Amino acid sequence: MRLVLAGLLVAAAVVVGLIVNAHHPGLLFASAAPIFGDWQPHVGPGTPAAVLIAFLVVAKGPELARHRFALPIAYLASVAWTFSLAMIDGWGHFVTRLTSVDEYLHEVPEITDVPAMLNGFTSRILDFQPDSWTTHVSGHPPGALLTFVALDRVGLQGGAAASIFCVLVGALATVAIPKAIDNNAVLPFLVLFPGAVWVGASADGMFMGVAAVGIYLLTRWPLLGGVVLGWCLFLSYGLVLLAPLAIAAMWGDGGRALGRRIALAALGALAVVALFALNGFWWLDGYELVKLRYYQGIGATRPYWYWVWANLAALALVIGPAGIRGLHRNKWVVGAGTAILAADLSGLSKAETERIWLPFAVWLLAGTAKLDKRWLTAQALTALAVNHLVLTNW
Description:
Elements: H1 2-23, E1 37-39, H2 47-64, H3 70-88, H4 91-96, H5 114-119, H6 135-138, H7 142-153, H8 158-170, H9 172-181, H10 187-191, H11 196-199, H12 203-220, H13 222-232, H14 243-250, H15 255-278, H16 283-294, H17 304-325, H18 331-345, H19 353-356, H20 358-361, H21 373-389, E2 390-392
Antiparallel strand pairs: 1-2
């Protein structure tokens, strides 16, 4: 029944999107609604590789999930899957996704004094100023920009290095999640995650990997996990919604042990918050200004009445049929679902959620462990269909 309802939801979102775009061009600001991209059936150099990788994972994935080197094998397979999907659109598209005038790399050459940048960051968030940040820099805390500044400083300049970095970090979710939930049976489903279409390459794909590592660390070393999740707060304001997943990671220890783990995690996160505050950036100030900036742009145009449910249609394509089939009441699915519902109802997630919600959506695959190879095939077909029918912006 869930699959039928999800299919009807996707179909309705596509049909309504086509009708609205035909009569009110620019209202949805997504030509291939509910996906941000353009309807453009195509093949590319990555097509044969993507089909081959999908075939191999379906055929051997469940078996390899029991291999002693299952995690490194899965990581490499995830990187290969994500990269092959990206190459369906071609190398040129891949290396320019993070270099447009709206993206982070556009601002990197200007950053010559990091303390000064942090101290004056909030003053440049609002639009219609001579020195306003680009769309993506203004819409995120400074940690996202600092990440690409750091890459530049160590000699990894340009769109190719940034895009490859996002893929490599994003694929860490494939190994962090099985470790967190202590179940390698989900590995092949994470490898063939349809959301990989948007991991290669978007900064949100990178956020997904960092967040997954942070949640895993909470299950073992809460202080270190708190530091990583504290850093996540400065990659994206929306990652404050990792809180339900963080609770899930620590849930199960009773009494004093649970309290100690929460205290250690909070201490680690607060240390990162304090470090940014001491350097002139206060998270709450940035968040309040970002809400204003959001409605200075296309956030004011995109209608809530459509995106509040069409976002969920996009999510269905991200997690695929196996993700939908595996939705059941476990703490990871509940945590991720709570975060997604809060983001959806907030009105600050109108479109592009196929990439923005990646750090939460990937955890919905925690319920796929008992599914068979047929569902792996369905995952692969979903990703291949989306990537070949729509030219996505990421």
